[in-house]
Design a protein that fits this description.
149 residues; alpha+beta; Thiol Ester Dehydrase, Chain A; six-stranded antiparallel β-sheet; 3 helices; globular
């Protein structure tokens, strides 16, 4: 799945869209996606000048976005929902992510209910775990959300 198709599913846009490509998608099960970490990422301006390191929270956000793509493809009526990250559990950061790295975003669906979904998520660089977490996504009813905003 290329950038254009990703943008069909996710509401995020540059500079906050953190999934560049989807390599594998198994609805109801798992997704493998990529984020190419480039030298000109906007967050590198301040994190950190002279020692560019991708913020861990943005690695988790990239994983959550990949999970969102998986969830939209797993739901029987994806146009009726809006997926939001609602909980991060057991997040661990194991190595720095720097310009030139390619993050492989591996997300596996653990449990899906009507209003939430739990994922196991890992971000890898050169087959080494950079970050991992258990994520919970909330499924909001799009029509109710539209009334609020």
């Amino acid at each position: 799945m290329d950038q254009e198709k990703i943008e069909k599913w996710l509401p995020h846009r540059y500079p906050f869209l953190l999934v560049d490509r989807v390599l594998e998608l198994k609805p109801g099960d798992s997704i493998l996606a990529l984020k190419n970490v480039t030298y000109n990422e906007p967050f590198f301006t301040g994190h950190f000048p002279g020692k560019k390191i991708m913020p861990g929270v943005l690695i988790v956000e990239a994983l959550a976005q990949a999970g969102g793509i998986l969830l939209y493809h797993s739901h029987p009526d994806p146009d009726s929902i809006f997926v939001v990250l609602s909980k991060i559990e057991e997040a661990r950061f194991r190595r720095t992510v720097v310009p030139g790295d390619q993050l492989k975003l591996s997300v596996k669906m653990l449990k899906q209910k009507a209003s939430f979904c739990t994922f196991e998520a890992k971000a890898l660089v050169d087959n080494e775990i950079a970050a991992e977490a258990k994520l919970v996504a909330g499924l909001l009813k799009k029509n109710e959300l539209d009334e609020k905003i």
